[in-house]
UniProtKB/TrEMBL annotation, chain B:
It is found in: Cell membrane. It comes from Streptomyces radicis. The chain crosses the membrane at residues 12-30, 98-120, 132-152, 176-194, 230-256, 276-302. One of its GO terms (biological process) is transmembrane transport. The lineage of its organism: Bacteria, Bacillati, Actinomycetota, Actinomycetes, Kitasatosporales. Belongs to the binding-protein-dependent transport system permease family. This is ABC transporter permease.
């Protein structure tokens, strides 16, 4: 079953699923374990937010899905990436290349450096059609104008010949979005798409992304460390810490009742108006070095609830339930004391 | 853009006057006498010498001589070669084709081989190919052109008989291959190293990651995205280098017996032919300035972020 053939959704098989992914980096201090058994999935029309600090492995996971990880020093040491049930990691490079940009596309954080400074935006947008669809130069340019219109760049027809540095930050990110959207992929991975933007522009860009995702019925993986961005657009959240997913939850559930001490720490460190004048909460300590991840639960040195078991046993990902044992849909936590965390 | 070019052209005037003045003064300061040199080992005829000095204006004050020379230049008169009584422009005209051919050939070698080696080394940075290329370029940089010239002449030329060691006919491109290689060696090594470091720097750039994420083939990502960005610093070097090639061929032209601009300057210097030296150097300065301007304009084509104001 080739990837080109399967356009229809197969019931029961997620659009994109990451299964127990392990990625390491060779460094002078030894192997840095950037991703240690990450699993998540996204369906068409669904938005998964992957939340975590820098170095939590969220971007590395995304790059591994795209197949743009620098190898070496990076190395996938285990796991699967299933696109419509087919493992991308076992595909030959040429087949993988054809998936990139066409079926799964990516939006990067800093559009200024992610766009080529010496080529016009029209050229860079049109390139998608020229390479994947064999369009002529002229037809590709017409498509580029169409795309720029679609992401609401004013005067697209004139601006198609401009260079990236001639656009504002928000407009540049729109071009990145247009580029990812070009071939109407099934999945878009957005790696901190609004981090480099002004706060006023952030909302506009995020709204645009959410709108396009709805219109094209795409799966969206939104990588961020900004809890504010997540609340409005995501359906479900995966919280990452030291290369592992520590909590899975539907977005509003997570905000109301976190089931992992790390998630709770993150939520508590959001500045709030009614706390004005009081000291801002911060999770004590620093994220661990990936060459020396603590034994047991990686979060234990920073956790107020840590007991002996947290220093020795790696907590398994378990389903979170109500106090009476009734199931809470789509929720899981990797904490020995999730009950105490969620039910107080 | 038009204003920029106009300003650059205006800037050439003081540069041109300053450099010709310096050359003029240096020639004057050199020991020796062009008129006396005409007689060589023989005893000179003093009356005739005095007459010639008067005729050529060599008895005037040096500043007056320079002024007259400058006025002549404005009318396209580069002076007269004392020995042959020929116009310096004519003398340059005779020597130029050989030098131009040599320059074109050497420059093509530098561009094709230099950038080619740099690209290969940069893409294989840290591996054996890279190390080998770095070693060869280091060797080429360390060896002076007269050593390289004689090596080329001796081995492929005389010992192995692959190619004629001396240029008999400067209109024959095959004859020019060895001197062009010798002339190109040093710059080729620099271009290769410059390209390599630029490639290494740019291949990890964010836009290259984007190119990969777009599903481009590696060839296209390198050709369209990487090379274009990496060649910006290389073009600057190549521009300056083109000017140097035209003038720096003195040794190469000497070794391979090419009657070009380099040879002309060399013999004119030996004979204290002030007018010829200053004339040739003035001509070369103009070429150099024009090439530099063209390169700066080309820069904007390569890198749209550069604005001329």
């Amino acid at each position: 079953m080739s990837i080109e053939m399967t356009k229809a959704e197969t019931p029961g098989v997620p659009l994109l699923e990451v299964r127990d992914l392990h990625v390491e980096f060779r460094t002078r201090e030894g192997a840095a374990k950037a991703v240690n058994g990450v699993s998540y999935s996204v369906d068409a029309g669904e938005t998964l937010a992957v939340l975590g600090e820098s170095g939590s492995g969220k971007s590395v996971t995304a790059q591994t899905i795209m197949g743009i990880l620098d190898t070496p020093p990076g190395r996938v040491t285990g796991g699967q990436i299933l696109y419509r049930g087919e493992d991308l990691l076992t595909l030959p490079e040429e087949a993988r290349r054809r998936v990139r940009g066409d079926k799964i596309a990516m939006i990067f954080q800093d559009a200024l450096s992610a766009l080529n400074p010496v080529l016009t935006v029209g050229n860079q947008l049109g390139e998608m059609f020229r390479v994947h669809r064999g369009f002529s130069r002229k037809a590709a340019k017409a498509k580029a104008v169409e795309l720029m219109d679609r992401v609401r760049i004013p005067a697209a027809k004139e601006r198609v010949n401009d260079y990236p540095h001639q656009f504002s930050g928000g407009m540049r990110q729109r071009i990145m979005i247009a580029m990812a959207l070009a071939l109407e992929p099934d999945v878009i991975i957005a790696d901190e798409p609004t981090t480099a933007l002004d706060v006023t522009v952030q909302a506009q860009v995020m709204d645009l992304l959410a709108e396009l995702q709805r219109d094209f019925h795409m799966g969206l993986i939104l990588i961020t460390h900004d809890l504010g961005v997540v609340a409005d657009v995501a359906d479900k959240i995966a919280v990452m810490y030291a290369g592992r997913i520590v909590e899975n939850a539907p977005v509003h559930e997570l905000y109301k009742r976190p089931a992992h001490p790390y998630t709770r720490g993150l939520l508590d460190s959001i500045p709030r108006l009614d706390h004005k004048g009081k000291e801002l909460y911060a999770i004590k300590g620093l994220p661990p070095s990936l060459t020396a991840i603590p034994s047991g639960c990686a979060f234990n040195p920073r956790c107020a609830m840590a007991q002996d078991i947290c220093r020795t046993d790696v907590p398994a990902q378990v389903d979170v339930t109500e106090r009476d044992g009734s199931p809470l849909g789509g929720r899981s936590s990797a904490c020995h004391f999730w009950k105490e965390t969620i039910h107080g | 853009m038009g204003r920029y070019v106009a300003r650059r052209l205006l800037q050439m005037i003081p540069v041109f006057i300053g450099s010709t003045f310096i050359i003029f003064m240096m020639m004057y300061a050199l020991p020796g006498d062009p008129i006396r040199a005409l007689w060589g080992e023989r005893a000179p005829d003093h009356a005739q010498m005095a007459a010639m000095r008067e005729e050529l204006g060599l008895n005037d004050h040096i500043l007056k001589q320079y002024w007259d020379y400058l006025l002549g230049l404005l009318q396209g008169d580069f002076g007269t070669q004392i020995r042959s009584r020929r116009e310096v422009t004519e003398v340059i005209g005779d020597a130029l084709p050989a030098t131009l051919r040599l320059t074109v050939m050497a420059f093509s070698i530098i561009v094709v081989v230099g950038i080619g080696l740099g690209l290969v080394a940069g893409l294989r940075a840290g591996r054996k190919t890279d190390t080998a290329i770095l070693f060869v370029t280091l060797l080429l940089i360390s060896l002076p052109v007269f050593v390289i010239g004689y090596l080329y002449q001796t081995y492929p030329g005389q010992q192995w008989g692959w190619i004629t060691p001396v240029v008999q006919d400067s209109e024959n491109w095959g004859d020019l291959l060895l001197p062009a290689l010798a002339l190109a060696s040093l710059s080729l090594a620099y271009v290769a190293r410059l390209t390599r470091s630029s490639i290494v720097e740019n291949r990890r750039a964010d836009y290259m990651r984007t190119a990969k994420a777009k599903g481009l083939t590696r060839t296209r990502a390198v050709r369209v995205h990487l090379l274009r960005n990496s060649l910006i610093p290389v073009v600057t070097f190549l521009g300056v280098n083109l000017g140097e090639l035209m003038t720096g061929a003195i040794v190469t032209e000497g070794i391979f017996n090419i009657h070009g601009i380099g040879r002309l300057v060399y013999s004119a210097l030996n004979e204290r032919e002030g007018a010829t030296v200053v004339g040739v150097v003035s001509f070369v300065i103009v070429v150099y300035l024009v090439v530099a301007l063209i390169v700066d304009l080309l820069y904007a084509v390569l890198d749209p972020r550069i604005r001329y104001a």
